[in-house]
Structure formats: C-alpha cells, structure tokens
Amino acid sequence: MSKHMGALRGIVIATLAATASIAFAATPAQEKAFVDNYRKAFETKDAKALQAFLYTKGADPRALEFYKMMLVPDADDKLTSITLVDLTAEDVKKLAEGKTPEGKPMKMNLKPIKKLIIKTNSKTANGSSSGSSESFIAESDGKLVMPVPALEK
User: Fold this and answer.
1) Domain ranges, ordered by start, for the chain
2) Which CATH number is 27-151 given?
3) Residue ranges with strand state E in the chain
C-alpha cells in the first residue's frame, strides 16, 4: 500500500507543479493589455509611463540608465508594429550568455517569458528610416514587466 501511496504522492506533486506553472503564465488578456498600454505610452512618447514597465529590483545602475534612455522614442518615430512573441532557442541562449559591454556576466532578475518587438519608421526633411527593437518580458506579481539586467555575483 505504501508503494502505491508513494506513486500517488509523486503524481499529485507533479500535477500541482504543472498547475502552478500554468497559473503563473500570462493570459492572452494580460498580454493584450500590456501591448495596448505600451503602444499608448509609446505613441504619446510618455517617458514616465514607458519607464513604469521596467522591473528594476536589483538592476545594474548602468543597465537601468541605458534601458530608460532606449525606451523613449525619438520625436519623429512612428510605430508601425508592436508584437509580443514567444522566446526562441536563440533568445534563451542569449539570456544564458548575458554579458555587459565590458564582458562581465549579467543575468535577468526575473525569467523572461516573452519578447516584445517594436518596429518604427521616421521621416524627416533629410529622408526616412526604419528600425526595430526587442525587449525581454517577464511576469512579476501577475503583471508583465521588462526586467533590467543585474550583474551576476
């Protein structure tokens, strides 16, 4: 009987673990709200609202300043698309090999679950240009955020 109880206990623990990991996954509604809110902040060039998406707990100060600077679009930037996509194997590898510009190891304080891809166009008297940026997205307390890297200890 104890052999069966041990097996049953293992099944229950595995089921609870799987259920817990599913419960913490972002829902389609959360993802849509995140993208909509980010789009609104980007289109209005609201630096404060954009920076509110950052998860800064334990962040490297230099990385934080860089992220803050890169979030705010240039005056001429027009959003052409914004998408939230699953991480690729290459993304996971890039995260595992995170380095500062000086070559020091860096890591995310939260495990990214998605990637935000933003594409822009800008037109000036001197011509036009297009660009794209990618940011890793994680979940903290039921909310999608952009984690800022920390130096590995």
Assistant:
1) 27-151
2) 3.10.450
3) 54-55, 77-86, 106-107, 114-124, 127-140, 143-147, 150-151
